[in-house]
Structure formats: structure tokens, C-alpha cells
Amino acid sequence: xxxxxxxxxxxxxxxxxxxxxxxxxxxxxxxxxxxxxxxxxxxxxxxxxxxxxxxxxxxxxxxxxxxxxxxxxxxxxxxxxxxxxxxxxxxxxxxxxxxxxxxxxxxxxxxxxxxxxxxxxxxxxxxxxxxxxxxxxxxxxxxxxxxxxxxxxxxxxxxxxxxxxxxxxxxxxxxxxxxxxxxxxxxxxxxxxxxxxxxxxxxxxxxxxxxxxxxxxxxxxxxxxxxxxxxxxxxxxxxxxxxxxxxxxxxxxxxxxxxxxxxxxxxxxxxxxxxxxxxxxxxxxxxxxxxxxxxxxxxxxxxxxxxxxxxxxxxxxx
Length: 318
What we know:
Blueprint: H1 2-31, H2 37-42, H3 48-57, H4 64-76, E1 82-83, E2 88-89, H5 90-125, H6 130-144, H7 147-161, H8 177-211, H9 214-221, H10 226-238, H11 240-263, H12 269-278, H13 282-310, H14 312-317
Antiparallel strand pairs: 1-2
Helix pairs in contact: 1-13, 5-6, 5-8, 5-11, 5-12, 5-13, 6-8, 7-8, 7-11, 8-10, 8-11, 11-12, 11-13, 12-13
């Protein structure tokens, strides 16, 4: 247990320079934006004196390294700046939008896991037979469909044509759990299908490789029921590699929420980012991008820790 805790602490320590690097990248990219924050707030008719006063008041006339240090200090205190206009803390706007994006991403991950496990395990257990061929075709179709195209198709079929789900909007789960599931089902499915289908191929390969090992044949030959051997041993060993790939696929899920939220009019981080770009709000755009990037880094850290717990050989190596 102490070895696992030490590994977790080391991974957490490596997170600090990684977050600083992400912050530096986002900061530098935003500096190359053609949008002038002063003109965005004051308007194109502002005088040179007004622009200079605004930049001095907000530290925009200082050297780039000084501004980055100031940015890191504000970031350490949870200050991401103010939106323009109207003046509102960026952190507050992100705090209002982030829970919805987390909910959508979590539902997308859950749906992707269900799709991957069902398709992958069935294809592996019936390899080279008709269920395996069907699952291959289904997984290839799912991979080929972009999430935004699938989202539009789902809206047309299940919201507009048959009125099974609402076409857009969001209901807080505290107000109505059934309403929340109704508004989140189609967006989550649009995110889950491409990721789940791509992950299903990896699950199938891992399960097939595990089924061909000697210990499986020995256990079944000794009289253990196949479902016990597969459930207790095969699945535990076979899902280590898909777990690692899932961490990489989470970037696709997080990036896909930007378009999916816009299609379904969900007030999450993606909609927040689109609004910031439309309104030339550099502070909000910078804070939103930084939050999404740091969230992606944190999720990958969690996946790495889960991978350490799932793979005892790595714990022994440390």
C-alpha cells in the first residue's frame, strides 16, 4: 500500500510542472490573438489615450514574462480575470458551466464503456463467427460516424420526427431526474458511439489474446465453469490495455462536447467557449480553454493511477 501511495504522490508532483506548461501554452497562444481586449471593451471609437489607460490599468502594457507571472499568481488564487462586458468574474461563469460538461462527459464515458464491453466481449467469445462479423461492421460504422453528424441524425429521428426526447435545452437533475436524463441522453449517445466503437476493437483483441493463454485452458480443463474463468480472470487481465486507451480517448470526448453542447443548446463549457469567441472576450476564452486543458490532464492522471491499481506488475516494478 505504501508503494502505491508513493507512486500516486510522484504522479501528483509531476502534475505541477505539467499544469504550468499548459498555462504557458494557453497564455502564449492567446497573446497571438488579433483581438485587442481594450478595443473589445471600449469599442472601436475609443481614443488612443483611453486604450493606453485601459492597458495600464489591467497590466497589458507590461512585458510578456511579467504578465505571465502575474497570470500564474492570479491563477493560484483562483482568479481567471473578468469578462468584458458586462464585468463578471470568469471563475464564476466557468463554475456555472463546468458541472454540465462534467455530467455530459461522465455519461459519454459510461455509454462508451457499455458499448465497448458489449461489442468487444461478444465479438471475442464468438470470434470468426457471425456475431464477430456483425460486431466488426457495427464498430466500423460507429468509428466512421463523426459525433456532430450523429448528433444531428439523433435530433432529427428521436426529437423532431418521433418526439421521444426534447431537441434541445437542459433540465437540472435537482429539479427532475427524468427530465435531466431526457435532455442528456442524445448528447451523451452522440459522444459515446464513436469512442465506444473504437474501444470495442481493442477490447476484442485483448480478450482474444487472454482466452488463448494456457491458464484459461488449464482452468476450464480442471472443471471450472467457463463463465467463472472469464469473469474472474480473463476480464480482469484483458481490460488493462483498454483502460489505458480510454484515457487517450477522453480527449476526444472533451473536445466533442464543444460541438455537441452547441447542437443541443446545453449551457456548458463548449457553449461558453463559443460565446467567448463570438463576443471577442479573451479573458473568458483563455479561462475556458485553460480549464478544459487542466481537466484533461487531471483525467489522464486518474486513469494512470487506475492503471497502476489494475496492473500488479507495475506496482511490483516500483
